[in-house]
Design goal:
The complex is a heterodimer of chains A (about 375) and B (about 130). Chain A is of the alpha+beta class and about 375 residues long. Chain A has helices at about 10-15, 35-45, 65-70, 120-130, 155-160, 205-220, 230-235, 270-280, and strands spanning about 5, 20, 25-30, 45-50, 55-60, 80-90, 95-105, 110-115, 135-140, 145-150, 175-180, 185-190, 195-200, 225, 285-290, 305, 310-320, 325-330, 340-345, 350-355. Chain A folds into three domains: about 5-50 and about 145-235, Probable tRNA modification gtpase trme, domain 1 (Gyrase A, domain 2, 2-Layer Sandwich); about 55-140, Aminomethyltransferase beta-barrel domains (Alpha-Beta Plaits); about 285-355, Beta Barrel (Elongation Factor Tu (Ef-tu), domain 3), CATH 2.40.30.110. A six-stranded mixed sheet of chain A has the order 11-12-13-10-4-14, with helices on both faces. In chain A, strands 15-18-17-16-19-20 form a six-stranded antiparallel beta barrel. A five-stranded antiparallel sheet of chain A has the order 6-7-8-5-9, covered by helices on one side. In chain A, a hairpin with a 2-residue loop joins strand 11 (about 175-180) and strand 12 (about 185-190). Chain A starts with a strand and ends in an 8-residue tail after the last strand. By secondary structure, chain B is α+β, with helices and mostly antiparallel strands. Chain B has one domain (about 5-105): Beta Barrel (OB fold (Dihydrolipoamide Acetyltransferase, E2P)), CATH 2.40.50. Chain B has helices at about 30-35, 80-85, 90, 115-125; strands at about 5-10, 15-20, 20-25, 35-40, 50, 55-60, 65-70, 75-80, 100-105. In chain B, a hairpin with a 3-residue loop joins strand 6 and strand 7 (about 65-70). Classes of the chains: A alpha+beta (about 375), B alpha+beta (about 130).
Chain lengths: ~375, ~130
């Protein structure tokens, strides 16, 4: 199968990126080393190509009502220039996708969705939109590139390339019409690494020049090109969930510990009844963080055991470079979810001791 | 990147013969493909290993990979430094990053292994460069 290429594909080859298949996209897993890039983002800055992400534009007088119906978090309290994270559920309360909502105006929104879910989400959104004649839905993924500049030096680097007063952009806010290095961009103070940083949305044709200019501006501030490998270890340390691992169509946001993004007071949204029922009856499984006590690296899908009985499974596990430990996220039976609970992770047929610890594993100082 | 005094396996291990003993490690290519190595599981001293069969596991940030014994015999040494410094395999795959030493039960098995030229050819055929 031919892999899809982002506008930065040639750029990645030029910078020595090691290309892999990610959800059907040819993207760099690393440029130098996952661990080096990870440390660079925590201490200085890293630049990521996240153009594989999908974007859906929703406009019209029913735009807000449609999104309010689609997502679990509340949309009506958002202001222009604000970003909000939300799960989007099916009727059973399972997660169709998790996404960012951008409010450009009262009748103009953009949803940013996961690369692997673009077709599924777009079909789902269109289906629901048939009940909202005053809303137009457009998949603008192909005409939108996205770069993520992440790390404590991000603001200093971007400041060299734009007149926008970056210090005035709060976390989860954005500037809709900015210019960065001469290119038109949306500047959003968001990210998926647990660090300060910005995500820039631009025209695909502008992405390669923007990439080069940001790296050049960041050279003396420790900025490196960064791949998918460290993107995963960084989000994992910050205990940010990844669709397909911590969430899927059969896992609810409540199971995944995303209750604070579910507004059960909202008059109506898809999945509300199922989530209310789950809340009343109690969770079926609970997402926890754990640290290995014995030697071993937990990996996605490994069984979690207690007293010889299977009580859950690992959703993500890895060596955590900043914390220098082997850590995991996983679902367990709710009665075994308390911090300090001793569990085992089955690695190559052996139960290796682990203990449940607090999430997030890492929080920036 | 591929010393001439070593023998290689198609699964990218190397063997350095010292009398009846053979030192085993991963080739430059193997560690480069894996990326940053973060965990190594080696057999206990005295474990019998068999040519072509898995004897241990190395894990990088993203991947889990078995290591296959280049020759049969008994494990007589293991690189204890790898428990705390698995990155030695990336830094020095033919030196400080060695894995185990095997007391060979049948030294003629060495003839089944690839010399450096054959190993390079094997990598080319597999599409590795």
């Amino acid at each position: 199968m031919d892999l899809k290429k982002t506008p930065l594909y040639e750029t990645h080859l030029k910078y020595g990126g090691k290309i892999i298949d990610f959800e059907g996209w040819a993207l760099p897993v690393q440029f130098s080393s996952i661990i080096e890039e990870h440390h660079a983002v925590r201490k200085a800055a890293g630049l990521f190509d996240v153009s594989d992400m999908g974007e859906v534009e929703i406009k019209g007088k029913d735009a807000q009502a449609l999104i309010e119906k689609l997502v679990t978090n509340r949309v009506s309290t958002m202001v222009d220039g604000q970003v909000r994270y939300s799960p989007m559920c099916n009727e059973k309360g399972g997660v169709v996708d998790d996404l960012l909502i951008y409010r450009f105006g009262p009748e103009h929104f953009m949803l940013v969705i996961n690369a692997g879910n673009i077709d599924k989400d777009y079909n789902w959104i269109q289906k629901v939109a048939s009940g909202f004649p005053g809303a137009t839905v457009r998949n603008i993924s192909a005409e939108t590139a996205e770069l993520a500049l992440q790390g404590p030096n991000s603001e200093k680097i971007l400041k060299k390339l734009t007149d926008v007063d970056l210090s005035s952009i709060g976390y989860y806010y954005f500037v809709p019409e900015a210019t960065v290095a001469g290119k038109k961009c949306v500047i959003s103070r968001t990210g998926y690494t647990g660090e300060d940083g910005f995500e820039l949305y631009c025209a695909p044709a502008d992405a390669p020049a923007l990439w080069d200019d940001i790296l050049e501006a960041g050279q003396d501030l420790g900025c490196v090109p960064a791949g998918l490998g460290c993107r995963d270890t960084l989000r994992f340390e910050a205990s940010m969930p990844l669709y397909g691992q911590e969430m899927d169509d059969d896992t609810t946001p409540l199971d995944a510990g995303l209750g604070r993004f579910v507004d059960l007071e909202k008059p109506d949204f898809i999945g509300k009844e199922a989530l209310l029922k789950e809340k009343a009856e109690g969770l079926r499984k609970k997402l926890v963080g754990f640290e290995m006590v014995g030697r071993g690296v937990p990996r996605t899908g490994y069984p979690i055991v207690k007293d010889g009985e299977r009580v859950g499974y690992v959703t993500t596990g890895s060596f955590a470079p900043t914390l220098n430990k082997n850590l995991g996220l996983g679902f367990v039976r709710p009665d075994l979810s308390n911090v300090g609970t001793q569990i085992g992770v089955e690695i190559r047929g052996k139960s290796i001791p682990a203990v449940i610890v607090k999430k997030p594993f890492y929080k920036r100082g | 990147m591929y010393p001439e005094n070593l023998k290689y396996t198609k699964t990218h291990e190397w063997l350095r013969v010292e009398g009846q003993k053979g030192y085993v490690g991963l080739s430059y290519y193997a560690q480069d493909q894996l990326g940053d190595i973060v965990f190594v599981e080696l057999p206990e001293i005295g474990t019998e290993v068999t040519q072509g069969k898995a004897f241990g596991v190395v894990e990088s940030v993203k991947a889990v990979s078995d290591c296959y014994a280049p020759v049969s015999g008994k494990v007589v040494e293991r690189n204890e430094n790898l428990e705390t410094s698995p990155e030695l395999i990336n830094k020095d795959p033919y030196g400080e990053g060695w894995l185990i030493a095997i007391e060979m039960s049948d030294p003629s098995e060495v003839n089944n292994l690839l010399d450096v030229e054959a190993y390079k050819k094997h990598m080319e055929e597999e599409g590795h460069h």
